[in-house]
Design brief:
Elements (H helix, E strand, L loop, with lengths): L3 H15 L2 H7 L8 E5 L16 E3 L6 E6 L8 E3 L1 E4 L4 E3 L5 E3 L5 E6 L6 E10 L7 E3 L4 E5 L6 E5 L1 E2 L5 E2 L3 E2 L2 H4 L4 H6 L10 E4 L7 E5 L1 E2 L1 H6 L4 E2 L2 E7 L8 H4 E3 L1 E3 L3 E11 L4 E2 L14 E8 L21 E6 L6 E10 L8 H5 L3 E8 L9 E2 L3 E11 L2
Parallel strand pairs: 3-9
Antiparallel strand pairs: 1-2, 1-5, 4-7, 6-8, 8-9, 10-30, 11-12, 13-14, 15-20, 16-17, 17-30, 18-19, 20-21, 20-28, 22-28, 23-27, 23-30, 24-29, 25-26, 25-28
């Protein structure tokens, strides 16, 4: 059975076009939602085990099933911890919400049961040691997996990194692939199989070394045209894609940035790029004389404002926010069929608080896109950007 919550979001988007919102609501059976929406650890006594108090809470996106809290050291972290949860209305959780659990042997499995008493969902919850390091980060994009959209037959690629201990880290990279699923309403409802290669962001062979990332600007079909979202640019970024906003405000869906504990200096890597032939606007009309461009940029920004509120940049403000302290962007990426070096340096004269930096008070966003104006649904179908062997250099 397709996850009812995701199906409802898909139907809600289609309703903007076809006017059948009421029928989608009828399909949304009451009391069948069984998700964790947020989780947190209470108590000042736990703060010393975390780099930042913000790490003691997590907002959970709909596709997450394995969730971790980042801590300074597992060796000093208490084994008995009480975790609190915000659940979808009417749902219950086992072990009990706020109960003390033993994490000494690793992750603990929680089961959320919907109000109907039948629909369930399981989560694995644990703690991950996040050590500070002054080494450069290298991203070769060899690690990816097939993700499934709800319980449909739609599959797409999701990239991950490996920790020093070999743990799979799925909360580093994100893309708009899950949002692209919303353009596939008919295939979702008919249970038609869709393969990862049909998505804007995909793992591809023949990288500069091993595999690479392929980002391609694709059509979103008739539904996208009617809602003035005719294209979807291939993108990959450090952060999360929050599908909650995908239908209503797609810019908010791209939550860009992850906590970073070193001052970034430079980003290098290799790319290939071929632009699509016809550039169109959000109204699907051709814009004469305009050519598509690929985009690569990165920003370091404060993840809390002056009042201590969380700051998470998105597709609408990631390049303009006043909380940005460093920025790097490629001025141009000429077309090339050969692997070509790109090299960009971080600029900015705002003072970086070293203590705050060491305690995860800054986020870093690194973004790749096949269409520079893709966030505004402008670009050329067929524009294709390949990325491989990226190195993020930090201040030693």
């Amino acid at each position: 059975m397709i996850n009812k919550r995701i199906l409802f979001q898909t139907c809600a988007l289609a309703a903007l076009v076809f006017g059948f919102l009421s029928s989608c609501i009828r399909e949304e059976a009451p009391g069948m939602e069984c998700d964790i929406e947020a989780m947190w650890i209470e108590g000042d006594e736990y703060k010393p085990y975390f780099y930042n108090a913000n790490d003691m809470k997590r907002t959970i996106i709909s596709t997450e099933n394995t969730i971790t809290f980042p801590v300074r050291s597992l060796s000093i972290m208490p084994k008995q911890v009480a975790v609190h949860f915000a659940l979808t209305p009417g749902a219950t959780i086992y072990p009990a919400n706020g109960s003390v659990q033993d994490f000494s042997d690793g992750d603990v499995t929680y089961t959320v049961t919907a109000e109907d008493g039948k629909t369930t969902r399981t989560y694995r919850l644990g703690f991950r040691e996040t050590s500070q390091t002054v080494t450069d980060r290298a991203y070769d994009f060899e690690n990816y997996e097939e993700a499934r959209y709800a319980s449909s037959e739609i599959y797409y690629h999701r990239f991950y990194e490996l920790s020093n201990s070999g743990e799979k880290l799925t909360d580093i990279w994100a893309s708009g692939n899950e949002g692209f699923c919303l353009s596939m309403l008919s295939k979702i409802l008919s249970n038609t199989k869709v393969y990862p290669e049909e998505f804007p962001t995909v793992s591809a062979p023949d990288g500069r070394t091993g595999r690479c990332v392929k980002l391609q600007t694709l059509s979103t079909g008739d539904l996208g045209k009617t809602t003035n979202r005719p294209i979807a640019a291939g993108n990959l970024f450090l952060g999360k894609f929050n599908i909650t906003y995908a239908a209503s405000n797609s810019l908010l869906a791209t939550e860009m940035g992850i906590p970073f504990t070193n001052e970034p200096i430079r980003v290098t890597g290799y790319y290939k790029y071929k632009r699509g032939a016809v550039f169109t606007g959000a109204d699907s009309k051709v814009i004469p004389g305009r050519q598509d461009e690929a985009d690569i940029y990165a920003v370091l920004y404060l993840n809390k404002d002056e009042n201590g509120n969380d700051v998470m940049l998105n597709g609408g403000n990631v390049l303009t926010s006043p909380y940005i302290v460093r920025k790097a962007r490629m001025e141009s990426l000429p077309e090339t069929d050969e692997w070509t070096l790109f090299d960009m340096s971080f600029e900015g004269d705002k003072v970086i608080d070293e203590t705050l930096l060491a305690n995860r008070g800054y986020n870093l966003a690194l973004v790749f896109s096949s269409s520079k104006s893709g966030a505004n649904f402008e670009g050329a179908i067929g524009s294709t950007l390949y990325i491989d062997d990226v190195v993020l250099s930090v201040k030693k």
